[in-house]
Amino acid sequence: MRQKTSESLLKMIFQYVSDAILILDEQGMIVDANPSIEILTGYCTKELIHKVKLSSICQGMDRCADFTVCTNCFTKLGSISSFEIRLLHRNGQIFSAAASTTRLQEHMGGLLVVVLRDMSEHNKEEQKQLQKKMANYMIQAQEEERKRVSRELHDGVGQSIYSMIVGLNIIGQMELKDELKEHFQMVQDMAVQALNEVRCIAVDLRPSSLDDWGLLPALRSFIKQFERTYGIVTTLSVVGKERRYESAVETALYRICQEAMVNAAKYANIDKLQIDFEEQDQQLHLVVTDFGRGFNIEKIEIQGTGLGLYGMRERAELIGGTLDITSNFGHGTTIRVNVPITKQEETTYDHPCFNS
Asked: How far apart are CA 79 and CA 101, in angstroms?
């Protein structure tokens, strides 16, 4: 009675387990299969049992040097706990499956039990993680290159132009003929303009205040430049103690805020902008609110300095955060960024930007 109960239980498990199970004879012929094989391969059990060898749908082990079709290699193998193979689906697509094999004892016919599990979702997740790592690497490389070029502009080209201006000032103190004074003044003005442009480009590439003093001083500096450029009154409200955060977090939030502000200035038709920053319960909250025309989120992708809405969201996700956007016609747009932060020793700075 107990044996019959055990057999019934095994049959039930065989029929309803989510993994596909194949039973192979010594020649690799499929002599039994459970219904899950149809979900995995598209072939029903009637098409496989006593009609098909596994080698006909197996495209080889995943790490084989030779990617040609398998030639009954499973019949030569014993018990293997875990490996990956490629299978041919009925629709013609090749996909990966996790596999394990168990060789039954001789008195049980020496059959080989093959358990298969779909790896498609697993591989998709691996690919997603790889893409995330690559995106993170690209952003880091971009920021490092921006930092390098910014410093070269400031310390190299900028200093050279400044030295030229000093030399021109010395010449300007000399007596010059009237016809030369006009040309001299023009050259002097051009040099000053060139220096200002180099400094602006250097700051746009990578503000030194972001590395030297952190997120909030860098934002305040950018807000001043933003107000001069666009004439938009911008208010920054900070709740809580101001301190430094991890470099990746500061960079991401700075770039997101910068992008959101420039987008609002270009497309929202606004005269004021509100930025709120708060640290609470090991979470950083950054909210950028304009009071402009608003837009249809489903139809419009924000166009800006190369990031766009997708780029902002990607930056937030790369530091473990989230970005949400709400927008209504006539009621403006709000971008909310939430980023978890690890508990660390607080570092505050006695800097005028923190108290302005």
From this structure: 5
